[in-house]
Amino acid sequence: MKKLNTLITDLKPVKIVGNENITVTDVVCDSRQATAGAMFIAVRGVAVDAHKFIDKTIEQGATAIVCETLPGQLSAGVTYVVVENSTIALAMIANRWYDCPSEKLRLVGVTGTNGKTTTATLLYRLAQELGYKAGLLSTVRNMVDRKEYEAKQTTPDHLTLNRLLHEMVEAGCEYAFMEVSSHACVQHRIDGLKFAGAIFTNLTRDHLDFHKTVDNYIAAKKMFFDSLPADAFALVNSDDKVGDVMLQNTAASRHHYSLHTLADFNCKVLEDRIDGMSLLMNGKELEVQFVGRFNAYNLTCVYGAAILLGLPADEVLVAMSRLQPVDGRFQTFKSKHGYTAIVDYAHTPDALVNVLSTIAEVLNGKGRIITVCGCGGDRDAGKRPIMAREAAMRSHQVILTSDNPRTEDPEKILLDMEQGLDDDLHRKTLKVTDRREAIRLACKLAQPGDVVLVAGKGHEPYQEVNGVRHHFDDREEIMKAIE
Q: Dihedrals φ, ψ of 198, to 5°?
């Protein structure tokens, strides 16, 4: 429990009606969770305006209301705090409710189109390898030291995010690493948090169903860097032209990593194999259990961030050699019939190109690439023909299939993808709507030395059809198919 005037310390209320000194027993933004003595924060969402539920929460016992406009009739014994933006207020209040947990951790955020999950997860595992307690907030899972929680969003909602950070503090964690999505920036989910560092991986077309334009997408990512304090670090990929855009207005110290240009942290791929790579990291040789240049980028920014956090370079390199790939990110399966199957989360054109280019480099013309891919429903339809074209151009055989159609007709999604294929690309493309059958067919077509890539869903253990999630795991389906 906390006093209301303590919870609103960081706000600049437009008006307060009622007693500021009341005790708040809980903070909620879901009207269904309001109980006696609770504070209800009425947020204007995309689909629902929670202001219409204010009276309901008061009936359930809420005694403090944070809102942008006062209801027509005020209730006796209830304190109303009027703010300009209740979403920002929610972030600030959530931070205070959980005792400002990010100030007691060394919190590092990772943003970008591709590589967020791998980078954040590897930093978490690296800290654990070096003997530190750490937390992780990612698309795949949330970890409080070694205790796992289900991840429902790339970046959790305001209250869940601060609660998990608070639990990390209580568990004795020194570090925390989290993915920072563009949605989270725009929706102010990270407002009020104190970051020790921020990482930018890259930026390519994604989430245009939400942001509408690439410029808006870039601006959303940049909000994160613009908000960093002077004692934080900002580490960006200098091989991506958007990297320096992120640094334009930041107060944080500025650092770069690169595979191609002189930077604070440099990496060169000495050898790329299907089971790992040999790297030259800032002049020191390193063997890792990762494949592909995109992973070389991920590992370079992991190394850079670790050094910027003050961890000893030699110990970091030794620990990095022991790290293993993240679930569903270039995860390999060997068939007794001599081919290799790979599951990867690649669900953007750029990510798909990276994975297919990596496979082609490793095969060096000594095997075929058979790709299974689709596109999610209710998302950016503009990337569908691009995805199909990139897959067909870089594979010997492509099987277009259903991804997470959500509320869309999967056949319609596949037709959209086919628009990116000319006659030549069409001739090496098959269409199998059932994803399980598509994976089975790909494995049947594979010969010794070939690689089957199943792209798009990666770690996800479900397929969402007509708004309902059914159990479906690409990794399980591959294991069945190769047996």
A: -135, 140
For tokens 């253990």, the residue is 461
Query: What's the Cα-to-Cα distance from 383 to each of 85, 153, 352, 454, 456, rounded to whole Å?
Result: 33, 22, 12, 18, 13
Tokens describing residue 233: 């670090």
**Unique residue bearing structure tokens 């009606």:** 17
CA–CA gap between residue 304 and residue 200 (Å, rounded) = 12
Strand partners, 111: 200
* Token pair of 289 as six digits: 């259990």
Angstrom CA distances, 370 to 340, 394, 416, 429, 454, stand at 10, 9, 21, 10, 9
pLDDT digits (tens, 9 = 90+) for 257-289: 999 999 999 999 999 888 899 999 999 999 999
The Cα 59–Cα 29 span in angstroms is 15
Beta bridge pairs of residue 440: none
Query: What are the residues facing 286 on neighbouring strands?
Result: 279
Show Cβ contacts of residue 332 under 8 Å, excluding neighbours closer than 6 positions: 274, 275, 291, 340, 341, 342
pTM of the model: 0.84
Classify each residue of 452-474 as buried b or exposed e, where b means 16 or more C-beta atoms within 10 Å of its C-beta. Answer: bbbbbbbbbeebbbeeeeeebbb
Q: In the block, which residue shows the tokens 């007691």?
A: 104
CB-based burial label for 6 (10 Å; 0-12, 13-18, 19+): middle
Q: How crowded is residue 295: how many other Cβ atoms within 10 Å of its Cβ? A: 26
